[in-house]
TrEMBL record:
This is LysR family transcriptional regulator. InterPro entries: LysR_HTH_N, LysR_subst-bd, WH-like_DNA-bd_sf, WH_DNA-bd_sf. Keywords: DNA-binding, Transcription, Transcription regulation. It comes from the Bacteria. It comes from Kribbella turkmenica.
Length: 295
């Protein structure tokens, strides 16, 4: 049978007071209600917990055994509730989330769910420059950032990874590969890829514009850009191609460029990152919502 918390509370207080009147006062109940709760608990257990006479109230051997087992379990339950209350009270204020490009559905859905569950914490979003995924985070302008992978920064924590997408090559309509339905990574040999400028770390820039195919053939490094729009302008001018994920390519369709799926390269992916040691309750809650949206 299901356990009634009020019955357990009544038993614990009566075990302390050994007096029905004082127990009723502490619980803001009538003495008859205290008796009802105790009788109900004894029926659940199947035996008397107290010896009751007109002069005294005392625990039975069963009552003593039950009390010994119940007290630590009830204290643990109280701690669980208190910890949850503390956590909920901490999810307040403002949470600033930066993102590269446009926020995708996973991020927007996580923001909406987070706000519905945590009305006391407002989320602000800010766009991050393509060429500086971690700068705003380190400067404290945002609390967390949604960035393109990879992330290998000692001072940052990588949280949920989501939105794994096939990479595509974006080129102008006159490019030699423009008519292809799909290409392999080895077809990039000898091509020029527009690169991302610093201050993004070199390993991150290399991942966005590799200088070798998986088999080791040379890919030429083209001009460097700070934003995606700069890259698209150079593509139209015939200065090279650019690797972007499929959703980004679809969101920036133009009549003077084409996007071609590329096999043989790691998928593009996004990750939520934050400063090590600064995963606040608000940030933990948002990361959990983002993880659930991405699953």
């Amino acid at each position: 049978m299901g356990v009634e918390i009020r019955e357990l509370e009544c038993f614990l207080v009566l075990a302390d007071e050994l007096h029905f009147g004082r127990t009723a006062e502490r619980l803001y109940l009538s003495q008859s209600r205290v008796s009802q709760l105790l009788q109900s608990l004894e029926r659940r257990i199947g035996g008397p917990l107290f010896d009751r006479t007109s002069r005294r109230v005392a625990l039975t051997p069963l009552g003593k055994e039950f009390l010994t087992s119940l007290r630590p379990a009830y204290a643990a339950l109280e701690r669980v509730v208190e910890n949850a209350r503390d956590y909920a009270n901490c999810v307040r204020g403002k949470l600033r989330i930066g993102f590269q490009g446009s926020a995708n559905d996973d991020v927007l859905n996580a923001v909406a769910v987070f706000q519905s569950h945590n009305p006391n914490c407002l989320i602000d979003v800010a766009e991050l420059p393509l060429n500086d995924p971690f700068g705003a985070l380190r400067r404290g302008h945002v609390d967390a950032a949604v960035v393109l992978l990879p992330v290998a920064e000692d001072d940052l924590v990588l949280g949920p990874v989501f939105s794994r997408q096939q990479q595509t090559l974006t080129v102008c309509t006159s490019h030699r590969l423009a008519g292809r339905a799909a290409i392999d990574a080895e077809d990039l040999a000898g091509e020029v890829l527009i690169a991302v400028a610093g201050p993004a770390p070199s390993y991150w820039r290399q991942a966005q514009a590799p200088t070798q195919t998986p088999a080791g053939a040379l890919i030429h490094r083209g001009p460097e850009v700070h934003t995606l729009q700069e890259g698209l302008s150079l593509i139209v001018a015939g200065r090279g191609g650019m690797l972007v994920c499929r959703p980004t390519a679809e969101n920036h369709r133009r009549t003077d460029i084409v996007t071609i799926p590329v096999t043989g390269l790691p998928d593009s992916a996004l990750g939520l990152v934050w400063r090590r040691g600064e995963d606040t309750p608000s940030l933990q809650a948002f990361a959990a919502h983002l993880r659930s949206q991405a699953e």
